[in-house]
Design brief:
This protein is mainly beta. 2% of the residues lie in helices and 41% in strands. It has a 6-stranded mixed beta sheet with strand order 1-16-17-18-19-24. Strands 2-36-35-34 form a 4-stranded antiparallel beta sheet, with no helix packed on it.
Length: 425
């Protein structure tokens, strides 16, 4: 067993101020991109008629999650079944009144899967600007009044299952895992003017279609920002490996192999974001793929030196987990379970079917409780405890959902296939 030097690891917020962090949920999986907020209050119970502050209808179903920034709620939606009109909606967080909608016209019908409608990404904001990725239709930045500040055409991305990775704001940069498809690359775009600061291509073989061996390839993983040994890193799960980039120039600091699917899996796939648990990064492959635990630190290919464990086949994992008190709590799409994982060994401490349905949404944490919304639109609330799973509430809205809740100022915002809800006790 190799010995590792002590490395300080901190998952950092990449948005505005500490005060804004406490009030807002400005991007995918919250203020630090890890599903955790320091909110002391959050609703425990609700239903379609109980504790609903407001709800608004959305034009189409979608898997993108809402965000909350500077008294506004943003969410994406397609306007048509062909994805030729892709929109960003802005609502007033207090009333649900629509401030504005910005629709991008795209002339081609791009392939996707029925379970992943167009506009499946989550926008990101910093209190003044909001950025949304419409995949082949482009990357767009607006001010909070809905004025377009810049846009970028990053090319076409084709994959049989569509797209879903979300942008992340880091200081003055927009970080984006661009793909899936024939081209996969991590890029940093200037938040000020939309110009490319750097781009790092991911070496791979495949174009997003089924290979000769019957397998697929792709990454839908949204990167996370972590401070490792006093320096920030952009960490993302790619189709075959986990990669840490220098946010200043895009150079690969380290990588770890082990995500590539093996016999019985559907290919080289990554759906969820990596989760930082102390000084360990846990990454999980998609569609019954492998999971690995990597000790953070080092440089180059750290597979031999830093990889602690690898489990070759796992339950279907789409949503991302959260790290609480040294344990990882993760949702599984099938068989619809919640699991507690020991990040040091990869051992499943417990597995519980309390969710009651397939989970595509990520787990989030607030007020000492974990929340996860399943495909039936029920949000399960449970206490994070490595001893056993204790379900505290199961809140049904009667509408399906693949999105992740946003928690801000004691309120929860839930996107279903039909509506956007604000829940407040």
């Amino acid at each position: 067993m190799p010995r590792f030097p002590a490395v300080l690891v901190v998952v950092i917020a990449a948005f505005t101020s500490i005060d804004a962090m406490a009030r807002d949920w400005p991007g995918f999986r919250g203020p630090s991109g890890n599903g955790i907020t320091d909110e002391a209050d959050a609703p425990l119970e609700w239903s379609a008629t109980k504790n609903i502050k407001w709800k608004v209808a959305l034009p189409r179903s979608g898997n993108g999650s809402p965000i909350v920034s500077n008294a506004r709620v943003f969410v994406t939606s397609a306007e048509d079944t062909d994805g030729k009109q892709r929109s960003l909606y802005c609502f007033d967080r207090k009333t649900g009144k629509q401030h504005w909608v910005k629709t991008v016209e795209f002339g081609k019908k791009m392939i996707t899967h029925p379970t992943n409608p167009y506009c499946g990404t989550t926008p990101v904001a910093n209190g003044e600007r909001v950025v949304v990725w419409h995949n082949s239709a482009g990357l767009y930045c607006y001010d909070f009044e809905g004025h377009e500040l810049w846009s970028r055409d990053l090319g076409e991305f084709r994959h049989i299952w569509g797209y879903g990775t979300s942008p992340v704001i880091y200081n003055d940069k927009v970080m984006l895992n661009s793909g899936p498809g024939e081209r996969i690359f991590m890029t940093a775009i200037s938040l000020e003017d939309g110009k490319t600061i750097w781009q790092t291509d991911e070496p791979h073989k495949g174009d997003g279609s089924k290979r000769e061996d019957g397998k697929w390839m792709g990454s839908w993983s949204t990167p996370v920002i972590a401070e490792v040994g006093g320096k920030d890193q952009v960490i993302c799960t790619m189709p075959k490996r986990v990669v840490a980039y220098d946010p200043n120039n895009g150079s690969v600091i380290w990588s770890c192999d082990g995500i590539r699917g093996e016999m019985g899996s559907q290919g080289d796939l990554a759906y969820s974001s990596p989760v930082i648990v102390g000084d360990i990064c846990v990454a999980i492959g998609g569609y019954s793929g492998p999971a690995i635990g990597v000790r953070l630190g080092g440089s180059g290919n750290v597979t031999e030196a830093n990889r602690l464990w690898r489990v070759g086949r796992n339950p279907q994992s789409i949503g991302s987990g959260v790290a609480i008190d040294g344990y990882l709590y993760r949702p599984n799409a099938r068989p619809g379970t919640i699991e507690c994982l020991n990040p040091k060994t990869g051992e499943v401490v417990w597995s519980d079917r309390g969710a009651g349905a397939v989970n595509w949404g990520s787990i989030v944490y607030a007020a000492g409780r974990c929340y996860v919304t399943n495909q039936k639109g029920a949000t399960v609330v449970f206490a994070p405890n490595p001893e056993s799973c204790k379900i505290l509430a199961k809140n049904e809205l009667g509408e399906g959902s693949n999105a992740t809740p946003a928690i801000s100022d004691g309120e929860i915002f839930v996107r279903t296939f039909e509506h956007l809800y604000c829940i407040s006790e």
